[in-house]
């Protein structure tokens, strides 16, 4: 009898343990449902068509880091092209949606993202963002606040663009420099360029334009004469050089007066520049992914150092030849991309 009673008690104990385990598992899994996986929501403000492929780079690298779209991460990608009002509208929506992080590029979009998130706890990760004189971060090592990102080294790039222009056109004396008036990262570039140009005996003729109509009017007023000619167009890192309509206006003027264009590699409206110095978009996007990963892992965004990428040289050798410009072999060896 005692043996039978002990067996029954043992069975009851085992059953109790099994039932208890089932209940505990049920409670831990969310009352009977599958355990929920955190889905991180990323609001992406793609603010310039020329570098829209930054988003592709970000997504690709995030996948490599284990963030699978539709499983544990979602992207709300909003695309515009240098439109401050649209930037602000898009960012207002991201803030209202309480996304887990805002990813914004280039510089002016990043500045708007920082402003839009003041007073919230939404982190901002920027890309293609110039930081010199922008007030975007406190420092590279300690960006501070709710922001970090991938820096666009615009003063360094501007100087390299000027240096290559002199290699291609060693006799250059007068250079036209068109740019979007009021664009935030232009002043640091000009501050770097002006003393370099003066030391090289080159006069920079700045053409700050508010819009396409203004650009046309200024170029018409600058039409070369027999006594006043221009040796090149030098493009800075700003919207005019990489937006189709203004680039086409510049290209038409350059072709009419046989003025080589360089600084950014661009082709539009049947016009082409000769060379570019830049940070490649997909690569820049990939560099931002580890920063988002750190944010998702709970690291305070303002303590994550800003990353500065290397820049690449691209040469349109075909256009250079057509314009009778000799490209030094040393420059070709430096180029990551050569169009022949």
Describe it for me?
With about 350 residues, the chain is an alpha/beta fold. The chain has two domains: about 140 residues, 3-Layer(aba) Sandwich (Rossmann fold), CATH 3.40.50.2300; about 150 residues, Rossmann fold. The chain has eleven helices and 14 strands. Helix 6 links the parallel strand 6 and strand 7. Helix 5 runs parallel beside helix 6 and helix 7 packs parallel to helix 8. The protein is elongated, with a radius of gyration of 28 Å. About 5% of the residues have low confidence.
Q: Layout of helices and strands, plus pairs?
A:
Blueprint: H1 2-28, E1 40-46, H2 54-64, E2 73-79, H3 84-97, E3 101-105, H4 107-116, E4 124-129, E5 147-151, H5 154-168, E6 174-180, H6 186-200, E7 203-209, H7 212-221, E8 232-234, H8 244-256, E9 261-262, E10 267-268, E11 271-272, E12 275-278, H9 281-296, E13 312-316, H10 317-322, H11 329-334, E14 337-339
Parallel strand pairs: 1-2, 1-3, 3-4, 4-5, 6-7, 6-8, 8-9, 13-14
Antiparallel strand pairs: 10-11, 12-13
Beta content: 15-25%
Total number of β-strand segments? 14
Low-confidence stretches: 13-33
Main sheet: strands, sense, barrel: 5 strands, parallel
Number of helices: 11
CATH level-two architecture of the largest domain: 3-Layer(aba) Sandwich
Strand order of the largest sheet: 2-1-3-4-5
Instruction: Write down the secondary-structure element order.
Output: HEHEHEHEEHEHEHEHEEEEHEHHE
Shape: elongated
Number of domains: 2
- Say what the CATH topology of the largest domain is: Rossmann fold
First-to-last CA distance:
98 Å
What level of helicity do the residues show?
Answer: 40-55%
Radius of gyration: 28 Å
Spell out the CATH superfamily of the largest domain: Response regulator
Task: Output the structural class.
Answer: alpha/beta
Mean pLDDT: 92
The CATH class of the largest domain: Alpha Beta
């Amino acid at each position: 009898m005692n043996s039978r009673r002990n067996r029954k008690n043992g069975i009851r104990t085992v059953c109790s343990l099994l039932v208890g385990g089932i209940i505990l598992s049920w409670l831990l899994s969310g009352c009977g449902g599958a355990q929920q996986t955190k889905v991180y929501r990323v609001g992406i403000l793609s603010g310039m068509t020329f570098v829209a492929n930054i988003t592709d780079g970000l997504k690709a690298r995030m996948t490599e880091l284990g963030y699978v779209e539709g499983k544990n991460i979602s992207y709300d990608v909003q695309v515009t092209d240098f439109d401050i009002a649209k930037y602000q509208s898009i960012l207002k929506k991201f803030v209202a949606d309480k996304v887990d992080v805002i990813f914004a590029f280039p510089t002016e979009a990043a500045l708007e993202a920082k402003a839009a998130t003041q007073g919230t706890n939404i982190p901002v990760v920027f890309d293609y963002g110039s930081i010199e004189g922008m007030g975007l971060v406190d420092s590279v090592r300690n960006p501070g606040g709710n922001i970090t990102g991938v820096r666009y080294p615009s003063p360094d790039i501007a100087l390299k663009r000027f240096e290559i222009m002199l290699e291609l056109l060693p006799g250059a004396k007068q250079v036209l420099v068109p740019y979007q008036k009021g664009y935030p990262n232009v002043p640091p570039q000009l501050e770097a360029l002006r003393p370099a140009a003066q030391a090289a005996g080159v006069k920079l003729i700045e053409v700050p334009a508010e819009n396409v109509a203004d650009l046309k009017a200024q170029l018409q007023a600058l039409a070369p004469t027999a006594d006043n000619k221009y040796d090149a167009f030098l493009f800075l890192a700003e919207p005019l050089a990489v937006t189709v309509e203004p680039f086409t206006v510049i290209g038409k003027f350059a072709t009419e007066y046989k003025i080589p264009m360089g600084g950014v590699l661009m082709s539009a409206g049947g016009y082409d520049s000769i060379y570019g110095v830049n940070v490649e978009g997909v690569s820049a996007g990939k560099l931002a992914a580890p920063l988002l990963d750190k944010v998702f892992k709970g690291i305070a965004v303002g303590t994550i150092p800003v990353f500065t990428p290397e820049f690449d040289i691209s040469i349109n050798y075909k256009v250079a030849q057509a314009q009778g410009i000799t490209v030094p072999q040393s420059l070709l060896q430096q180029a990551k991309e050569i169009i022949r």
